[in-house]
Amino acid sequence: MTVVGERRPAGPVTSKATERVGDGRAAVRYLLPAGVLLLAVLAYPLYQLVQISLYDYNQPQASGAAPLRFLGLDNYGELLGDPQFWSVLLATVVFAAVCVAGSLLVGTALAVVASRARPIPRAMLFLAALGAWATPAMAGSYVWLFLFDADLGLVNEVLSGLGFTGMEGHSWMYQRYSAFAVVALEIIWCSFPFVMVTMYAGIKGIPAEVIDAAQLDGASWRRIATQIILPMLRPLIVIATIQSIIWDFKVFTQIYVMTNGGGVAGRNLVLNVYAYQKAFAGEEYGMGAAIGVVMTALLLMITVLYLRAQQKAGWSA
Amino acid sequence: MKSRISDAICVIAAILVAVPLYWMVLSALKPEGEIRSDSPRPWTLEPTLDAFRRVLDVEGFGRYFLNSAMVALLVVGGSIVLSFLSAVALTRFAFKGRTVLLVMLLVAQMVPVEALTIPLFFLVQSVGEVAPAFGLNQLAPLVLVNLAFSLPFAIWMLRGFVAAVPRELDEAATLDGASRFQYVWRVLFPLVAPGLVATSVLSFIHSWNDFLFAKTLIYSSTDNRTLPQALLVFYQPDEQDWGAIMAGSTLMTIPVLIFFVLVQRHLVSGLAGAVKG
Questions:
Q1: pLDDT in tens, B95-117
Q2: Do A256 and B211 touch (CB under 8 A)?
Q3: Which one-letter DSSP state was computed for residue A58?
Q4: What is this model's ipTM?
Q5: In angstroms, what separates the C-alpha of B187 from chain A's closest C-alpha?
Q6: CB contact A304 to B (< 8 Å)
Q7: Where are the domains of chain B?
Q8: Angle at A188 (CA atoms; ends A182, A191), nearest 5 degrees
Q9: B12, B38, B105, B118: best mutation site toward chain A, by most A Cβ within 10 Å?
Q10: What's residue B253's pLDDT?
Q11: Burial level of A126, CB count in 10 A (0-12/13-18/19+)?
């Protein structure tokens, strides 16, 4: 779900140079297997999600013990009237914003630094970043939990060794904000490499003459960075931002694993985990589906922005 | 424009980024007593495979590893065939509605598939009443779900690789009297192979990392669990066996790391291509 592999085709994709007899029918045959699968597993469930959200659909209804009752938009009404929904939505937005800002800042800054470093230090950085990128969310979550463990963790050990003796046995995951912060650190750790690699490729794509000329004219490094490199990277930054928003808005595994299902009394919930808990722990499938629909709508709005940005950058379909 | 400061920042950043990974492997190798020590040391003088043994023997990790591998390999196989066919149709055949399909493909990548757990749970449940092998607690629906959700991006990415094959080859093959089938499988397929490697590795990672759908669709069968769920079982609220958890995490990370190293050249070159365009 990234733009990572998007390649600029050699020729215009829309060219009809080799139109053959029966292309239309062949296309149907070639697209049929993928089409059937996507209709069955993606499109139909999406339709069902909306459907379920309009019903009073709890465990008795799911097991067939009670008849389904059509509620119309009642689930949505109840959801919007629930203060917990608004607090989860706010937490999701702020949390995603912190993760997005963090991975963009770290990724872009390190890309700039890497472009100025010698090959060996640069290779070290890329290798470490590749490792962080490749670590499965599940494994990464546990490693960071262990690092921040109250008694056995490395972080408290280092902090108390540095003189912060109050940090000995400090429980990071117990408080709402510090728990969110640790999860955010894990997410930034595994998502900045995507930004870094993207931006590094972008910087390498800037013709060396442009920067050489600016240097000859006596421009300081800071001016070159802010007035030449950043503006030229703008389209890439837009794409990477929106891509990160889409990822971080939908975080599930890290929150679920690291805060043990959304924290004490659900204070570390984000929308995705909230929907899941409502549906599968609370057995309120209709309400869970309604949250899912709200989330889909929000993400589709971001998608429209994404498509616009891609069109502006000139490499859309 | 090379500078010492940049070198130093690179090295420091590399170390900081690598610490969690180092700590994971180190803790997996530490003897149990050192793990439980209140003052952890950044090295161990007595590395042991005990934690790995605990994971593999006692908890049946091997079985879950095989389940995960089987699901991931089937997803990769399906993804190669389906994404290749679709990418060929979308780049090489002229037909009505192609642009619409391309936009739908992009939108499909944005759907928060996590929200679909609820309808999919019931869908798989009712399918299972007719075809038990595709019901809940079975691996087959997991394969289909992971395949479907990694497909839009795989097709999207592969489209670029297919489009990069010169069109003159199409014409030459036609002149030589090759049928469409021969052209697609004998000429295009081998030429697109590097792209297929890249996309199938990403499909592998997608499936290997999946936690949510495995958890939802295989909710009660202990035999058919996959790796992420197996790790969750180790994690007990009060008495964590951190050595085993780190060993399990290491085992889970290694295959992905191998595949990532294999594909990273394609990732970077694909990006460079996108940027230059």
A1: 888 888 988 887 888 788 888 99
A2: yes
A3: B
A4: 0.86
A5: 15
A6: no
A7: 1-48, 59-276
A8: 140
A9: B118
A10: 93
A11: buried
pLDDT at A317 over 80: no
**pTM score of the predicted model:** 0.85
For the ranges A11-25, A37-51, B103-117, the one whose mean pLDDT is highest: A37-51
Q: Is the dihedral of CA A243, A244, A250, A254 positive or negative?
A: positive
Superfamily classification of domain A40-313: MetI-like (1.10.3720.10)
Phi, psi of A58 (to 5 degrees): -115, -170
Mutate to test the interface with A, among B6, B16, B17, B252 (most CBs of A within 10 A): B17
Distance (Å) from the alpha carbon of B170 to chain A's nearest alpha carbon: 7
Closest CA of chain B from A71, distance in Å: 18
Select from B95, B149, B260 the Cβ nearest to the Cβ of A130. Answer: B260
Region A166-171: mean pLDDT is 82
Run of H or E including A23: helix A23-38
Question: Can you give the pLDDT at residue A144?
Answer: 96
Per-residue pLDDT averaged across A299-313, rounded?
76
CB contact under 8 A, A157 and B40: yes
Q: How far apart are CA A170 and CA A149, in angstroms?
A: 8
pLDDT of residue B59: 67
Higher model confidence: residue B175 or residue B67?
B67
Class of domain B59-276: mainly alpha
The torsion of the CA quartet B69, B73, B75, B81, rounded to 10 degrees, works out to: 180
Is the backbone of residue B137 left (phi > 0), alpha (psi -120 to 50) or beta? left
Residues A227-246 have a mean pLDDT of: 83
How is chain B classified by DSSP, letter by letter? ---HHHHHHHHHHHHHHHHHHHHHHHHHHS-HHHHT-SS--S--SS--SHHHHIIIIIT-HHHHHHHHHHHHHHHHHHHHHHHHHHHHHHHH---TTHHHHHHHHHHHHHS-GGGGHHHHHHHHHHHHHH-GGGSTT-HHHHHHHHHHHHHHHHHHHHHHHHHTS-HHHHHHHHHTT--HHHIIIIIIHHHHHHHHHHHHHHHHHHHHH--HHHHHHSSS-STT--HHHHHHHH--SS---HHHHHHHHHHHHHHHHHHHHHHHHHHHHHHHHHHH-
B130 touches chain A (CB under 8 A): no
